[in-house]
């Protein structure tokens, strides 16, 4: 699965911050996939876009259990 990160800007074009590919999530319920984006502006609102889920087509559903924001790097 490919996950893209964008920031939302109502007054201009949204900025694209790249994509991460996740593969562990298709190995079973005991597996997780983790991605990291760094150096993002703190004043932005962000959204994710998913692409290429599973084998594609209408066969697959995406369930997200948790989205975490780790600001520990910003604290140091």
Describe this entry's structure for a reader:
It is built from one helix and three strands; from the N terminus they run βββα. Strands 2-1-3 form a three-stranded antiparallel beta sheet, with no helix packed on it. With 76 residues, the chain is mainly β. Helices cover 5% and strands 28% of the residues. The longest helix is centred in the last third of the chain and has 4 residues, at 72-75.
Short account of what is shown:
This protein has 76 residues and is mainly beta.
Number-wise, the strands total: 3
Largest sheet: 3 strands, antiparallel
Tally of separate helices: 1
Radius of gyration: 14 Å
Quaternary structure type: single chain
List segments where confidence is low: pLDDT < 50 over at least 5 consecutive residues.
none
Strand order of the largest sheet: 2-1-3
Morphology: globular
Could you state the order of secondary-structure elements as H and E?
EEEH
Strand content: 25-35%
Taken together, the total number of domains comes to 1
Helix-residue proportion: under 10%
Span between N and C termini? 32 Å
- Mean pLDDT equals 77
Structural class per helix/strand content? Answer: mainly beta
List the helices and strands and how they pair.
Elements (H helix, E strand, L loop, with lengths): L1 E7 L6 E7 L23 E7 L20 H4 L1
Antiparallel strand pairs: 1-2, 1-3
Task: Considering the chains and any ligands shown, give keywords for the structure.
single chain; 76 residues; mainly beta; 3-stranded antiparallel beta sheet; 3 strands; 28% strand; globular
């Amino acid at each position: 699965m490919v996950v893209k990160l964008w920031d939302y800007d109502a007054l201009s074009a949204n900025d694209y911050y790249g994509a991460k590919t996740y593969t562990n999530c298709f190995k079973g319920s005991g597996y997780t996939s983790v991605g990291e984006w760094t150096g993002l502006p703190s004043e932005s609102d962000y959204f994710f876009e998913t692409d290429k889920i599973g084998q594609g087509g209408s066969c697959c559903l995406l369930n997200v259990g948790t989205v975490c924001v780790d600001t520990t790097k910003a604290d140091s």
